[in-house]
């Protein structure tokens, strides 16, 4: 029973950073889409910082268990977009960008904490988790495998012929993503983690000045 206490304590400390990271990520998608002319997310109540509107149960659980995950996808109707290909790229990029900016701001807050604040160990840990989790969510979503943001960003950068070929491969690529997650969970050898953790660790140290 005692061995479970640190894990439960860590779970409690990470709940707030997880909720914030997922919420700001999906809000950023909704905000970008709205700014580019698509009111769909706003009309569906997604242009909000209320976490309930954005949480995907499985995606949230994956962040807790595997250090990466996702929120409920923001609906986008490309018919409202003036430049669908380019605008979809910016809408997709808004999510990870919001997490990197949030991580940087939490890092600044950590750097400028007064010495007296370091007696509040839990508050310090929450700030550290906020930096780390926001960066995990950002870099995981930049992986160019559907349905992650990285796939939409890559599609927006590819010439039309290559983009169409990439879109035809979306289903097998989605299966590949799921397989990588499952294999990593079973074997405890995460290829995704090996890709995203080095830049996450580098930026975490840079933002926090440690």
UniProtKB/TrEMBL annotation:
- Keyword terms, alphabetized: Cell membrane, Hydrolase, Membrane, Metal-binding, Metalloprotease, Protease, Transmembrane, Transmembrane helix, Zinc
For molecular function, the Gene Ontology terms on record are: metal ion binding; metallopeptidase activity
A GO BP entry is: proteolysis
Top-rank lineage group of the source organism: Bacteria
Could you tell me where this protein is found in the cell?
Answer: Cell membrane
Q: Where is the Peptidase M50 domain?
A: 123-182
Transmembrane domains' residue ranges:
12-32, 90-113, 125-143, 173-197
Name under which the protein is recorded? Peptidase M50 domain-containing protein
Which organism does this record belong to? Handelsmanbacteria sp. (strain RIFCSPLOWO2_12_FULL_64_10)
Could you read off the lineage of the organism from its UniProt record?
A: Bacteria, Candidatus Handelsmaniibacteriota
């Amino acid at each position: 029973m005692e061995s479970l206490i640190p894990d439960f304590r860590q779970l409690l400390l990470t709940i707030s950073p997880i909720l914030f990271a997922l919420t700001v990520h999906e809000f950023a998608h909704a905000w970008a889409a709205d700014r580019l002319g698509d009111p769909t997310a706003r009309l569906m109540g997604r242009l909000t910082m209320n976490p309930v509107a954005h949480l995907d149960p499985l995606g949230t659980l994956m962040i807790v268990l595997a250090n990466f995950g996702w929120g409920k996808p923001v609906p986008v109707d490309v018919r409202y977009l003036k430049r669908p290909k380019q605008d979809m790229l910016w809408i997709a990029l808004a999510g990870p960008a919001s997490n990197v900016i949030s991580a940087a701001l939490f890092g600044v807050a950590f750097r400028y904490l007064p010495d007296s604040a370091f007696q509040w160990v839990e508050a310090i840990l929450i700030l550290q988790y906020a930096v780390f989790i926001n960066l995990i969510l950002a870099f995981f979503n930049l992986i160019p495998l559907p349905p992650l943001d990285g796939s939409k960003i890559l599609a927006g950068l590819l010439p039309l012929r290559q983009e169409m070929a990439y879109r035809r491969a979306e289903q097998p690529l989605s299966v590949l993503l799921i397989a990588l997650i499952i294999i990593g969970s079973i074997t405890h050898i995460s290829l995704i983690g090996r890709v995203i953790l080095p830049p996450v660790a580098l930026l975490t140290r840079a933002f926090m000045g440690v």
